[in-house]
Write a structure and sequence with these properties.
By secondary structure, the chain is α+β, with helices and mostly antiparallel strands. The chain is built from 16 helices and 13 strands. Strand 10 and strand 11 form a beta hairpin.
Length: 413
């Protein structure tokens, strides 16, 4: 058996707690008001959701007639509360039987705890939720299932309708209760894109998926169809061990930044320089080299189509070489007249630094010297803070790296 526990409107609940407010009755959004009315609400209190305010909305989308409090994000505080609640879980299960799905959602594997807690796991779930409430003032909900998938579905679909905030599913109950549930996007791992593909074949429910020819599902979803077919039956054999031992065949490093204001072609080029250096430092820290780069540029107010370009490069972690390749993409494809609001970069085709090779024009001694320099920069930043060492360009009025180094998860501490 598995538990999946979610902290209800976590960021907003923490902000209510520190203000002495009831998180279930107060109107509060977590957003950085200094970013204007277009600022994204990271969390919306449950009462605002009841009034029709959608989670992850923009400030300007909240109806004017609804009074509410705006709380500036405090990421370090939320992490502190998350750690506190994690310690509550440790009172009931071992750390090896806890899988953090996100900062506010955890899976607990109770497979080996039946002799200790008995078969009535609902009582245990109620005890844990009560402990969280009494210790922190935060309301939590829980899904109980015979596998991870059912625990998550019980949380997402059933728990909110139960007075105890606890949903329960076995494979039999799943087939009985949710076979005809709509929309499909309520189910874990089914997004709007998958739902649209299935709708083309008049597939709208889990029962429809079970009855659909497998060939159609595989044609639309590829290998992921097999996961969906299993989930339609309520079957899932993934364990914590599988998750922790999983190593992706390919991986990448990426960095994205939504700018606080519209940037000109020249100023945004400085931001690009900062972002490339940040990602190269990460590349060196992980002892990797990259064989491909990608550049994304989003223009202000969608005045132009967003740019997304890739380029194969000679596998390296050399900052100057990688930066020059980004400059090639930027100078040749970005519109000089366009005002820029979003920049994203990524490195892919990553391999271990030990596979570093050199081309005919490589200055091997210089490249190795720069690699040691970036190792030293990483050491200084780890020891004394990210702003302990900066480039002169980081101090320019249009630069953002110095400020971003003070953020946690892209938000103020």
């Amino acid at each position: 058996m598995f538990l999946c526990i979610d902290l209800k409107s976590f960021y907003a609940s923490v902000e209510c707690v520190i203000r002495g407010l009831d998180s279930m009755k107060s109107n509060l959004v977590v957003a950085d008001e200094s970013r204007g009315q277009g600022a994204l609400c990271l969390a919306v209190s449950p009462n605002l959701k009841k009034l029709g305010v959608k989670n992850r909305c923009r400030l300007f989308e909240i109806p004017k007639e609804i009074p509410y409090i705006i709380a500036k994000p405090q990421m370090k505080l939320y992490i502190k509360y998350s750690v506190l609640i994690y310690k509550i879980y440790l009172k009931y299960v071992s750390s090896t039987d806890i899988y953090p799905y996100s900062i506010d959602e955890m899976f607990l594997d109770l497979t080996t705890y039946h002799k200790y807690y008995g078969n009535n796991l609902k009582n245990l779930a109620e005890t844990i939720l009560k402990d969280i409430w009494q210790s922190t003032g935060i309301v939590a909900t829980c899904g109980i299932g015979t596998n991870m998938y059912l625990a998550k579905v019980a949380l997402d679909i059933l728990a909110k309708h139960e007075p105890t905030n606890i949903g329960f599913l076995t494979e039999e109950l799943y087939l009985k209760k949710l076979s005809k549930h709509v929309p499909l996007t309520d189910f874990w791992q089914i997004g709007s894109g998958i739902a649209k593909r299935l709708a083309k074949h008049h597939i709208y429910t889990m029962e429809d998926i079970r009855q659909a020819p497998h060939a159609i599902l595989i044609k639309e979803l590829g290998v992921n169809a097999h996961i969906l077919i299993n989930h339609a039956r309520g079957y899932d054999d993934v364990t914590f061990k599988d998750i922790k031992e999983y190593k992706p065949k390919s991986h990448s490093l990426a960095l994205s930044q939504i700018l606080f204001e519209n940037y000109s072609f020249t100023d945004a080029r400085i931001i690009l320089n900062e972002m490339v250096e940040t990602l190269v430092l990460d590349l060196v820290k992980k002892n990797l080299i990259a064989g491909q780069i990608s550049l994304f540029i989003g223009y202000s107010n969608n005045t132009y189509l967003a740019l997304n370009k890739q380029k194969r490069i000679f596998s390296t972690s050399n900052f100057k070489e990688i930066l020059n390749n980004f400059y090639y993409l930027y100078d040749n494809y970005v519109l000089p007249q366009g005002l820029i609001r979003h920049i994203g970069i990524s490195f892919s085709q990553l391999t271990d630094y030990s596979y570093q090779s050199y081309h005919l024009f490589s200055n091997i001694a210089q490249e190795r010297k720069e690699h040691r320099l970036f190792q030293t920069i990483n050491y200084i930043k780890e020891q004394y803070g990210k702003n302990a060492i900066l480039r002169g360009t980081n101090l320019l009025p249009c630069a953002t790296q110095k400020m971003r180094n003070t953020l946690v998860g892209g938000h103020h501490e």
